[in-house]
């Protein structure tokens, strides 16, 4: 049965019955009117447009104009991005960062998460490893700028490195020492010093040195003048400097200090025929084979103290900064992986052990595959973070190595606001960074959708 409309035509649909609820306007799936939902979303959409969409659009537009912003240059700015040496260095460094930093930080986080499951103090260890995340990039940069100081007395890294080096290699006894220019000793190449005249048995040799650091002779004995020994070549090595300047050059004066541990070689025709080391009182004795030879003090006696590694030099500056980044973010990776590890079914691990699998096989063939989704989240998050790295590079790298440590985000800042301001090139770099981040974000979105379907 149909009802008639006001115009006399039949109305579509069944007639309402007395028990039916009143007809209401259409609602969305969530039971909310569309215009109400739009009102609630409008502030968020406005902020998204003002803070994300507009800057992206403006950057693309600005990248097509010159430095002044008044002349259209097309893709010239993008051409400069791929031809300028500094920007190409920044791009290469970004590739190194993306390849190394997320991988190493995730691997360390996985190792920490797995190993801390078997110790009682796991919570304390995780707290210590995660603590650098509470430090800002600025503070971390200042910390590691001090850690990588070249001076071993200030830089922790070089203090440790020099300590290990000096454990296996004896330092020079008197670094920087040398003879007086007017004496019998003269430079003979490679930092060594050799007497100008040959020595004779029974005729003592004087080997005076100057420019010895006071700390190297603190506690040293007073030098003893060389004594004649029949059939032997003798001599004394000492610091030819008397307090007050009252001494005579080339002669052992009262109060002048002996130089102990100095290696002395007798050289004939460029070949060492005998050698010895000066005693605590500075004296030395060579066999009669040294007669007619010249005395040489090898360069090993005066080599400069080992100063460690130039961590912030052009060669190692990027790996050094990556190390500081890993120090900060390995804790982040560990916490996420530990959370994923807590959800791994223990019966699968026990079943693998019962079947005879070793702990390494259980880790490689069971634990890691089950943690693959979590590992993917960590790696992708760190890759996005690394592509935007700026603070650590700007703070840690000294001015002499800044170009070698350059990255795209830092170059964007320098091109846009540095000495050679060109916001057209800076905007082109910003667009390039966006294009590099987009594939990583798309992979992450697809991964999240697959996880949601499960």
From TrEMBL:
Membrane topology of this protein: Multi-pass membrane protein
Bias (Pro residues) ranges: 13-24
ABC transmembrane type-1 domain: residues covered: 91-444
InterPro entries: Ig-like_fold (IPR013783), MetI-like (IPR000515), MetI-like_sf (IPR035906), UgpAE/MalFG_permease (IPR050809)
Gene Ontology cellular-component annotations: plasma membrane
Keywords: Cell membrane, Membrane, Transmembrane, Transmembrane helix, Transport
GO biological process, one term: carbohydrate metabolic process
Region annotation Disordered: where it falls in the sequence: 1-26
Subcellular location: Cell membrane
Parts of the chain that traverse the membrane: 35-56, 95-115, 127-148, 326-349, 370-397, 425-445
Pfam family name, one: BPD_transp_1
CDD domains (alphabetical): TM_PBP2
Biased composition, class Gly residues, residue ranges: 1-11
Family from the record: Belongs to the binding-protein-dependent transport system permease family.
Protein name, entry field: Alpha-glucoside transport system permease protein
